[in-house]
Design a protein that fits this description.
This protein has helices at about 15-20, 40-50, 60-75, 115-125, 150-160; strands spanning about 1-5, 25-30, 55-60, 75-80, 105-110, 135-140. It is of the alpha/beta class and about 160 residues long. The chain has a single domain, classed as Alpha/Beta hydrolase fold, catalytic domain (Rossmann fold, 3-Layer(aba) Sandwich), CATH 3.40.50.1820. The mean pLDDT is about 95.
Length: about 160
């Protein structure tokens, strides 16, 4: 299995989380400069379209990119606090299919002060007519950063399906 992991703004994939993902397959975790590349989604798609991506996992800005890339690659996605409604850096959104013909799972932190979970829920609500199956898990005490235990639990449930 090829797992495309997309980090958030100024982030990277931490070793403990990489180890969790590597138990399920090959991890592709590019370094993404969202601030200086407003075409990150098209760059990622062009870079990995021939890599047989099986799933996309992303966090924050990586969750935003992962939302659109899962539709382009037609693969399931697991997204943590995705920056769907608002972003602090501009990104060009390329035309994507209305759905990925599979599911998108979203993990939201109710206490997130970086990506407002209400804005994310409103964004999803505004796009429900696209036919995209979306499962949402809201953690009442989760903030923006995803603890290893929460990451591991979500990945386990997502990849065991």
């Amino acid at each position: 299995m090829n797992i495309l992991y997309l980090h958030g703004l100024n982030g990277n994939l931490k070793p403990k989380k990489r180890n969790i993902l590597e138990a399920y397959g090959t991890v592709i975790a590019p370094s993404i400069d969202y601030q200086n590349n407003s075409n990150a989604i098209s760059w990622l798609y062009d870079s990995y379209t021939d890599k047989s991506i099986d799933v996309v996992i992303g966090s924050s800005m990586g969750g935003f990119a992962g939302f659109h890339l899962s539709k382009l690659f037609q693969v399931p996605a697991l997204l943590f606090n995705p920056a769907l409604a608002k972003r602090s850096v501009p990104q060009h959104i390329i035309e994507t299919p209305q759905n990925n013909n599979t599911s998108i799972e979203i993990v939201l932190g109710a206490k997130d002060t970086v990506i407002n979970p209400k804005d994310t829920l409103n964004y999803i609500g505004e796009h429900l007519n696209a036919g995209q199956p979306i499962a949402i898990k809201i953690h009442p005490y989760l903030e923006h950063r995803i603890p290893v235990a929460v990451f591991e639990e979500a990945v386990l449930k997502f990849l065991k399906k």
